[in-house]
Amino acid sequence: MLGRPSAQWLFSLLNKPKAQWQYQLKKNNGDGGWTYGRVRDLTVGGVESHLTGEYPKGFCYAAGGFANFLAWDVDENFELLAPFIVDELKKRKWERGAGATDGSSAGRGKIVQFIRPRIPQAVAVRHSEEIRRAVIERAEAELLLKIDPEKFSAYPKNGCAVVRILGRNRIRDGKLEQALDLNLRPSDWKYVKPVLIPYSPEDVLVHKNGQRQRAQWASDLIATPIIGTMKEAFKVMIRLADEAVRLEGESRAAQVLHEWCLGMASSAYRPRTAKGLKRKDSAENAVKWVLAHRRNVVPSTNTPASTWQPLDLSEMKVPKRARKLYEALVRYITAKGLNAHCFGMDYDRVAAVSQYREKSAAGKAANKTEDFGLLFRLHRGCKHNKGEHGLLTLWCLRGQGETLQEAVDDGMQTEMFQKRLDEGGEPTVWLVNGRKVQSGIPLAIAA
Prior knowledge:
Elements: H1 7-13, E1 19-24, E2 34-40, H2 44-51, E3 57-60, E4 62-63, E5 66-74, H3 78-91, E6 98-102, E7 109-120, H4 121-142, E8 152-155, E9 162-163, E10 179-180, H5 201-205, H6 216-223, H7 230-265, H8 271-278, H9 280-293, H10 320-336, E11 343-345, H11 347-353, H12 359-371, E12 375-379, E13 393-397, H13 404-411, H14 415-424, E14 429-432, E15 435-438
Antiparallel strand pairs: 1-2, 1-3, 3-9, 4-5, 5-7, 5-8, 6-7, 6-10, 11-13, 12-13, 14-15
Helix pairs in contact: 1-2, 3-4, 6-7, 7-8, 7-9, 10-12, 11-12
């Protein structure tokens, strides 16, 4: 149908997002207004009922720290601003992956940029906001048109919310909207081919103000009240110390961690725990522990991170725990510039980056993810013993265009893995022809 893509096509273009349904409150809603409900899984049937206007929805613009799409929502002078947005997309050679929509009333409309694979949300936020600023500057300079920033929005933003694309806006009692091409003519968007947006590890680290930003898991951990003892609180501090070192380096990490802990102390349940959190030497000790036990996690130069692309899980039926862990590890190695085929992490850190409160839960998630074929542990490492340092688990992630066996074979060629064979002996489990095999079977490792 001209002016309306098929439900299956739109669902795929949007990277199969979750959504929020528009609904009417049953209580205290005398004027019969509409609002958005909770985030729910979406199906092709749900997209179809949205396109017909029967059950309107907003689509989540991000999930798991990765953006599903980019969009620019204009509430005034859309016909004037749309060509400027399109020009910015053409500068980047993204126009083949973009479409437009009209709005719920005159002067409104959206430009939507479809991408594949998904990219880190922080990268998408910067791209979308950069284009928005460029359009505003050009419109004010060439058209002498004063742009109200509140009426020109760029998505995604930080966090996770929704953007309604097509359907109808019942909140404004709007009409059924139609899909347009970039010349603002009715279209079914069959011409659209999602674009690849490359990014580097530094792109993920740099904030919009040119500063490195604290990871979302760390912010969530700081905001979570600590109900346990100081011993349990110190485990949390160790996780946060690792993030403080990443952000500020060794010289300022303790001071930054101390500032975070002062805020955490105000919500601690136990007075003695709160007192311990306020002590500056607690933060210093946590940073010392991290530097002493995790120095051997360094970027590898064997396979530059920029040449490796993660799997696009939106195209795969992946268990929730496996998806959560894989995407968390991808964000971590991208930010650190690590070799995806061989990097070291202990389970405390795995729990921290994947937002599990206990490392045992992270371990179960790792088992699930490995069973599903998204990763393999090249070497299980060993625990710390008195007078001896332990060995971190060595991880290998499968990426686009490769089998897990190919990823593992490459990881086994790295200097890090070869050094581990000297330090810790052979792994207890190997991957042979895509299947796990217990150690004891002689295997030749290619030179």
